[in-house]
Amino acid sequence: MTDASTASAITPQIVADHGLNEEEYARILAAIGREPNLTELGIFSVMWSEHCSYKSSRVHLKKLPTKAPWVICGPGENAGVIDIGDGQAAIFKMESHNHPSYIEPYQGAATGVGGILRDVFTMGARPIANMNALRFGRPDHPKMRHLISGVVHGIGGYGNCVGVPTVGGEVNFHPAYDGNILVNAMTVGVADTDKIFYSAASGVGNSIVYVGSKTGRDGIHGATMASADFGEDAEAKRPTVQVGDPFTEKLLIEACLELMSSDAIVAIQDMGAAGLTSSSVEMASKGGVGIRLDMDKVPQREEGMTAYEMMLSESQERMLMVLKPGREDFAEAIFKKWELDFAVIGEVTEAAADGTGRMVLVHKGEVVCDIPLGPLADDAPEYDRPYVPTPANAALSNVPVSANPADDLLRLMGTPDIASRRWIWEQYDHMVGGDTAQRPGGDAAVVRVHGTQKALAISTDCTPRYVYADPVEGGKQAVVETWRNITAVGGLPLAITNCLNFANPQRPEIMGQFVGALDGMAQACIALDYPIVSGNVSLYNESKATGSGSAILPTPAIGGVGILPDIDRMTTIGFKGTGDIVLLVGERRGDLGQSLWLRELHGIEGKEAGPPPRVDLEIEKRTGDFIRGAIRCGALTAVHDVSDGGIAVAVAEMALASGIGAIIDAPLPGTVAEGLFAEDQGLYVVTVRDAALVEVLAKAEEQGVVIERLGRTIASRIIFELKESDHAVAIDDLRAAHEGFFPALMDGEV
User: Fold this and answer.
1) Among residues 234, 185, 157, which one has the least CA distance to residue 79?
2) pLDDT at residue 601 above 60?
């Protein structure tokens, strides 16, 4: 074997450098019956990395509900697929690009967008919307402004150039993310149900084809890097970050979709994490076949690349496909027209009698890899790691008093987790394509299915402080919040994707957070008939680089998708006129625990902030179904769910979206803080005109839904009329506070 990547002896240090422990290396020896060479070791290392194998999470992921009559394809493919009627399907997924984005924020975020786009169009869908979920550290951290700017411009730079609108997302700040920010990207596409493509290779002798960009040395060991926490050498990992080219991605989308309109493709797979290794292994193992690749035929942009480098490179904008016999020239003509590389680099081979295929790589006339595929994929290590359930927080005590709710509201509206994200979404082209029906800033993004009256509603959500305080309740709430946001625009929630961001799973308390959050998610999905069809697990999100060894807050980000049958029945959060009646729909409890009012105004968080608000799934579903029905019959003029900051912030956001104020004059249950700033779950603030009030109240009583009157819409101010006195704040003052945070931060004034 003359390839330099096969010449070195394998030492314990080389094994450790590849992220493998002694037991795992022993399994490799047993699987192949000899010592691997460096190329083979590298292939095992990336396929058995946490990022690719889910070895610490697979045992628990099996608990999640993944099926429903409208689910066409659940977890296991590039993305999830659901039926949206009329012979059409929505295809979507969320992925993490956390570690790369901390090291090199622009390219890390940009290639995260590129990767998730490929996951979706690989299955035959035209991408119609991008979303994201971002977590940053302290705004005044010396590195944070650089990270925010790089991430936002990376997302915008890639999505804008490729021509897919970025229509919404979420952003949180907390010191726990100082040394390990989170960048989760989501893409939604639409395809015909009879033109969905899968990744299982088949047909012995069929050509294996490489298309897209050439392979370089960028991103080598990216999957391994994403499967370990950050040490003091974080900056030294910069070469593991991929470099993206959105213009090539746009060409790749069009070329793939053009080829997909024919009958030429047997199987297709994005070259994502672990690049050519994962794409070829997954295609062959899913199809129960073998694979033989000639590395000399791989398009390369650098001289002297070894098989090891080519197999582990994560160069972007590349795809692998299996073609039907005789269709190579037809396919090549399409990719050459779009000025993309096209190369037949191998063939599908027959599996052995035991059903196991082999991966054989040839380089410079020599076999440089010959290993069974079974151990790489289906037989990868699976760990049921020890875990300790998160202890419950004591009940909240010594609660501060809200002496002036108008002042409290004004201060809250300018805090990092509530302040307007306008500075962010104005960097994104959220209107390209002409089908965006609801711009960022509402409860959910809404994008019309082109050429129809129906639309998709999309939301990304998670409240990490809730999950940290109680993983089960926090896991429920993350799922329910997307369900509620989709409901609030008039959509029927159909399914979710997830991005499970946690710290080191080898720490029992972290594994306890993971297990608890998945239990809560599963409960919510089952109760709401809201299955999980795709997802991603990102572990080892903690850093020693900050000197604190800090772990992130547990962050199971959820991306939800729902359907609006008639886009003309869509609702928005803005008040529609003065004199409308403001109602609160749902049962309030006055749960102040873990609220932003406590954290931001009184410095109370963590254990001292008590348990998070409770999620009653039965009430949640009943209330949401009522809201959706009231929207569809035209009874509600504005709808907004209650979340961060409670009822007061929900009312303020409705006022800011419209320029119309409100007087809240109903008697408050409990204290002022409990009545206005508690983050009770399952609540919606809605408005109705006088003529619709009787019908709305009657329907609510009929369906067992609680409604109470809060007040009326008025001009230019929000007034809280309390027993003792009135407190008012002008909308202009709220707007200044709300809009001021991000511009000040990015101008270096925070």
Assistant:
1) 185
2) yes
- The bridge status of strand 290-294 relative to strand 358-363 is parallel
Q: What is the pLDDT of residue 236?
A: 46
We find that the CATH architecture of domain 1-54+198-379 is Alpha-Beta Complex (3.90)
Rounded Cα distance between 166 and 460, Å, is 12
What is residue 151's three-state secondary structure?
Answer: helix
Q: What is the pLDDT of residues 672-718, one digit of tens each?
A: 999 999 999 999 999 999 999 999 999 999 999 999 999 999 999 99
Sheet holding 265-270, edge to edge: 265-270, 318-323, 207-212, 341-349, 290-294, 358-363, 366-372
| Torsions phi, psi for 367 (to 5 deg) | -75, 120
Secondary structure of 697-740 in the HEC alphabet?
A: HHHHHHCCCCEEEEEEEEECEEEEECCCCEEEEEHHHHHHHHHH
List all residues 6 or more positions away from 550 whose beta carbon is below 8 Å from its beta carbon: 175, 176, 178, 179, 180, 542, 543
Instruction: Report pLDDT digits (tens) over 88-107.
Output: 999 999 999 999 999 999 99
pLDDT at 223 exceeding the cut of 50 = no
Residue 235: its pLDDT value, please? 47
- 253 touches 164 (CB < 8 A): no
291, 416, 572 from 658: Cα distances, Å: 59, 22, 10
User: For 229, phi and psi rounded to 5 degrees?
Assistant: -80, 170
Least confident of 434-443, 447-456, 543-552, 654-663: 543-552
Nearest by Cα to 585 from 629, 526, 533: 629
Say which CATH topology domain 571-750 has.
Answer: Phosphoribosyl-aminoimidazole Synthetase; Chain A, domain 2 (3.90.650)
Question: Using CA atoms, how far apart are residues 104 and 147, in angstroms rounded to an integer?
Answer: 8
Query: Between the CA of residue 141 and those of 98, 138, 178, 182, 546, what are the distances in Å?
Result: 18, 5, 7, 16, 11
Burial category of 697 from C-beta neighbours within 10 Å (exposed 0-12, middle 13-18, buried 19 and up) = middle
Rounded CA separation 188/120 (Å): 7
Distances from the Cα of 536 to the Cαs of 120, 382, 461, 570, 640, in angstroms? 14, 16, 15, 31, 29
Spatial distance between the Cα atoms of 123 and 72, rounded to a whole number of angstroms: 12
On the question of pLDDT at 237 being above 50, the answer is: no
235-421-525 Cα angle (round to 5): 85
Q: For residue 347, with 0-12 CB atoms within 10 Å meaning exposed, 13-18 middle and 19 or more buried, which class applies? A: middle
pTM: predicted TM-score of the whole model, two decimal places: 0.95
Other beta carbons less than 10 A from residue 578's beta carbon: 14
Q: Tell me if 52 sits within 8 A of 277, measured CB to CB.
A: no
Residue closest to 415 by CA, chosen among 146, 644, 648:
644
3-state secondary structure (DSSP) of residue 568: helix
N-term to C-term CA, the chain: 59
Residues classed as catalytic: 51, 97
DSSP 235: G
Q: Which part of the chain is CATH 3.90.650.10?
A: 1-54+198-379, 571-750
Is residue 208 predicted with pLDDT exceeding 60?
yes
- Whether residue 740 contacts residue 414, with contact meaning beta carbons closer than 8 Å, is answered with yes
Question: What is the rounded average pLDDT of the residues 18-45?
Answer: 94
Distance between CA atoms of residues 183 and 334, nearest Å: 34
